[in-house]
Amino acid sequence: MSSDAPVHYAEVEWTTLAGTGIGAVIGVGSTLLADRVRWRRDAAERNHRERRDIYVTCLTKYRQAYEGMHTAAGANRGQDTLDTAVREAFRASGCDEARESALICAPQELSDVLEDVYTTLRELLEVFAAGDPPLDSPDFQEHRLRHGQAVWAARAAMRCDLERRV
Description:
This protein is an all-alpha fold. It is 81% helix and 0% strand.
């Protein structure tokens, strides 16, 4: 065999090479776009779950505050410890911390509604702590009804917020 044989180089078809390169760029680009869309969707779902959990915690803590104050008011009726026991039940409920978390993440219109609930809860705190009006009186029932209406309004606003942002 002779080493003088001509060497033939394969001619590169540039259109094939360019097509392959463009295909790779399109493939990588579409993968990156799909990952970005998936990341946004996952972030939106995570944000939705976090807001829902904060809203539920806030309303639950408000309810625990009411129940704790009601129990303390009943157990300490007519005693010098009434005011202290009711205020301690309110503090122990954790409603202030839950309220702050909700106010930070909620839109302004929902924050206003949450503040309405908190205001009625604070009014109940004063009623329970004073022991007047009595828990079985129509005046007390009016305070309770105002608080209940504020809670229902907050629930409706929370549902609206969670449905709007899905």
